[in-house]
Amino acid sequence: MQNQERQDLKIALVHDWLLGVGGAEKTLKALHEMFPQAPIHTLFYDKKFTDSFLPGAQIRPTFLQSFYTMFKSHKLLTPILPTAVESIDLAGFDLVISSSVSFAKGLILKPQTRHICYCYSPMRQVWDWHAEYKRESRMPVFITSWSQHFLRIWDRQASTRADHFIAISENVRQRIKKYYQRESVVIYPPVAFSQIINSRPAHAGQYFLIVSRLFKHKNIEIAVRAFNKLKLPLIVIGSGPELKKLRKIAEPNVKLLGYLSDETVVNYYADCSAFIMPQEEDFGIAPLEAMTYGKPVLALARGGALEYIEEGVNGELFEDPTEEVLADGVRRLIGNLANYDSDVIKKTAERFSENKFKTQIADFLSALAN
Description:
single chain; seven-stranded parallel sheet; 13 strands
């Protein structure tokens, strides 16, 4: 699909919600840069966030916007999220690209409207993480189980509505095949900070770094406890419901800085000794951002990390999400720090550049038009 042909199409982008920066939002931003005239439909959004992150974008929320403004929580809205996404009116659009974490794939469109779903994962709380989610839920088990059952039926049916799936990793491609019985192609999401990285020299710092949202499933607690015992400096950047708890258990060598802007975070990437990823990620953009500075990564040996971590070359893997096993991985990482080649590590990140992402998306659209 050539540029002029794309300009002639009426295109819309759809994203689940826009409340803060994560890998999915950075990918959406790259899509918005490709199609700046396309409106961005979303279930609800934080205007302060979108004004700074997506300036000039046409943000079009659903009827849930007023409820989100009232409750300041999207968890309470979960039972009606399927209804809300199905209410989005995209009549008249030729092409819809949904950036789908959970619900955006469930659009109901006219027969002539082509729908491409860029899928970060099948809805994990009802599929491969359903047991963990049930254990962590504060709701009674029968309510959580009923909710999961309802959402699982809806999610499976909603997956039939997209014309084409793009998966963010081979790991996700396999899950799309298993749970949705759909084929997909892999186009890795873009690694951010490319312009800033070129102007900011890297230095060998004296601390380890985590950049992550602070949710229980991110396993940040095991990293904090491991570094408490190791007595090594760890800096954790990110916000979330676990922040208060983590600050209580952290020893003086562990610093939790909360949310920081991208422009500030790059300084920490540049100056750390290495990056720590204690959680399973569908792909994992933050460790690759660290690699852009030539920093090695210690990652849990699951999910997307297996697609770019080469032990002894650009980092190390640890097998189990426990503080003892993570601590052993840190020792191996330290033992190999002098042997990592920063230029080799940087080449890993180059495989996932923003330009490459945009080119692959454009090529995918061109192939559909032929």
